Request: fold
Amino acid sequence: MENVEMEKFIHTLKYGKLSGSCKIAQLALQVLENHVISSMWLTAYDLLTSLKVVGKSMIDAQPTENAVGNVVRRVLKIVRDEYASALGKHAEGDPQESLQKMFQAKGRDDNYRKELPALKEAIVDSLEELKRELETSKDNIAEKSLEHIHSDEVIMTIGQSMIVKTFLKYAACRKRLFQVIVVETPSLSGHLLAKNLAESGIETTVITDAAVFAIMSRVNKVIVGTHSIMANGGLKAISGAHTLALAAKRQSVPFIVCAPIFKLTPQYLCHYDQDAFNKFGSPQEVTGLGGGEVFGKAQIINPVFDYVPPELVTLFISNIGGNAPSYMYRLLSELYHPDDYEL
Amino acid sequence: MDKLKLGGNQGSANKKKRNRRAKSSNFIENDHMKGPNFKVVDKTSESSTQASNMCSRVQNEQSKDNKLAPAEESTINPNLSESQYTLKHKKRKSKKKKSPIRTVTDKEEVSMLSADGDIQLSKKNGFGINLDSSGQASEEKIVVSGLEAIKTAVSNIDVTDSIQKTKVYDHQTLVKAENLLKSTELADSLTGTLKSSIMSTHEALKEESWAPCTGAGKQQRLDSRASNEEGQKTKAQLKAERKAAFEAKRVAEVADKRMSDKQTQQKSKATLRAERRAVQEAQRAAKEVSKNEKSAGVKKVHKKTSDDPRVSQQEVRKKVRLFRHLPQYHHNYLLTRNLRLAGSDLHPSIIGLGLQISQGVVRGSNARCVALLTALKEIIQDYITPPHKELSRDLEAKIRNYMNFLNQCRPVAVSMANAVKHLTRFITKMPSNINDSEAKLRLCEQIDTFIKEEIKLAKQAISQNAGENIRNHDVVLTYTCSSSVKGALCDAYDEGKNFRVVVVDARPRLDGREMLRCLVKKGIQCSYVLINAVPYIMQEVTKVMLGAHSLQANGYVMSRVGCSQIALIARAYNVPVLVCCETYKFSEHVHTDSIVYNELADPNELVTELPPNKQTLENWQDIPSLYLLNLEYDLTPPDLVAMVITDIGNLPCTSVPVVLRVKHAGSQEV
Reply:
């Protein structure tokens, strides 16, 4: 039964039919929860191994979709934590041990192999908590908007991010008057956001990608969403975000990223060629459907993501609070176990 | 009977005061108008009567044959083009030294002469007369408006007439008269509006320290305009002075007489207070009216579709807040709808050019400039100097007219403006003794030289200079379609250099496809990206080459919107940015941001021609809080640009004022 569901999920992931990291994360969590509940496992070690297998197949369906991998790692961390607390050990004190303990690693082989009856229930409870966290992250972040948007502000954003939309609408509902400038991306997702905001009564202006630097001097804040947050505090965001960040830096405009914490991934940008980092869309989105004899002789490049280095980001607002980019690495240890970084 | 002109006060003693008054008056002055986009706002539109009087006065002074302007023209046409204003005011300026001259009809003159100072206001011409010639238009119109009001309602004409007559420029007499007015029972007989008008008149007069000017006496009225030049008769002045003094005395006498005649001089304090309050109310009401008129006038300016009635552009209803000072039109609206084929004063080639430019058929600053100069050549060849006019003046005026029309079609490019400036400088310097055909020949030669040297040869020079900067295995990034960069790349390829080009493009124009087409046809290896992917592609780029619309005197580069962004990203990746720009595009502007001086294109371009699944903003006009912004140009700060490649060599951005200075010096020698 749960196999069927998993296959369905992998299928939709592979063919790019799902959009929105939140939705994908929730679905992935569902699959893993079903696996925990319905599969046969006796020890935590078995569970961990089987979860890794399932997780890997989901990640391989769409490697650039970091949300799936993040959720898998979260679940693994939950299992490990629950095991540790069930055994009576402290949650902290495990991974980052002293060198001495590492020498006396003999006892580690027994880890996760003890049979604990209450483990399954505890894990399922924690998974439910995680599910709730995923569902409420958007609203959690939106509630912080009043601390960041003052009256008569001009806010710039790019593309269409659900988080940013809820963020801005929350502030507008609480009678904060501000203007929004939306950068339409080549896929024109900015148009959707602009229409939505304007219909709620927020004064919105749509500009082209080319006008970002021209207008930046009159902007007070840049608030964007992102696809993922890299381990060094950098961003994997929609193409065009790097330009926004550079222009904001030049004009000393704060660059604020609103993202739920499940988007934080323990991966780094390894190479500036972005071979493993980026993926490319269809050239038809750039060229349109005509002009074949000209475009056929040229190389059309259409990257989907942009890397934004952490120096250009001012603040991350997530459901667990606001953080500077330099602190993001620290959160990794709270969310994931280092043994799970490589799946 | 001939219409006569009244002379003004030419006494040297009062010249300074007169000049001061001239400066403080509400005349439209030449130096208030700069640049093609400036809308002439009639300062005197604060009060309609004042405006009509003022305008008629201005018009009258401009009329060459000393004829009175007909009544219909006595109000300034709000759609008067800038060129016509400058025309008028060039002449106005020349007369500024002399005091303003009014024309008087024979009828009025007779009436003035007859009724012993009893002023008859001529309604026929919509303007009033002031006996005193030394008055400035401001005081005159105030007096006149006051006079009109008085005339229509007052019963005791004597007193008011005498007040008028005195032309009370004497402060003391003025105060006296005012006090008399306030205290005597005359205040009763006058209505509130009259009182207010008199008060306002007197207040206005009081504002400037009037010296007892020598008014034009009866004799001066009879003098012709010619004799009102500087160095006039002092006898008449003295006589007028004496008359003014006498009249001032007369006011006082008459007022006293009035006081003694009627017995109710002792007004109770309460009634006096009530009267004063009534006067104040009337004044406040008058102020409100004038304020409303002013605001209505201002609103009118905003709602106007265009300055030029020949061009009908439909203004976009919703403008982004930051850009409200710039015009923005719908371009699919038929421009020349209101143009009449016959009798239009526009040459057909200019109309054609205007249409081509506004529809985007002719695009790019070089192309537009060459098209303009070719059209001007045709115009000059068809030109025939009208009788009694000089070629240099008339042709210059016509060209200004055409430029105004083109500006309405699409804001004139800096290159076009510079070319026309160069041409008009040549026209004004032309000697007047040569005949028409010779002059036209010279002008056409000048235009040909300009095109050949400043545009064509400059392009070749730039290609040569740029080619030296392109090396083998270079990856050159360029943005949209610049004719200079296109030429440079093609020439470098012809020389046999082996390099790659990345063409960056942006919505909504997507001009980069044109550039891509030319390069691919040549055989150059190209990549094509949209501007959002530039940070990704910039890591493999070795140099960036951009075109420019113009270079400003403070070193900022004005070019297509998006260039500044590319320069910024290039700086972040340590890639040098080269700008190719001909020297004739250098301008005196010194803007620092892309907002204060820009061109707004049609916002509908952002939402037209989209695939059906992306047409979210089709009805953006119906959503009140939604605005679209479609900018044409932006400014690149000089620190982001490594070098400017021009026809005179490779320069840093900051050398622009040096080049401009050298060019000016050169043109003056010619």
Observations:
- The mean pLDDT of chain B is 72.
- Chain B touches chain A through 53 residues (CB under 8 Å).
- The first strand of chain B starts at residue 4 and ends at 5.
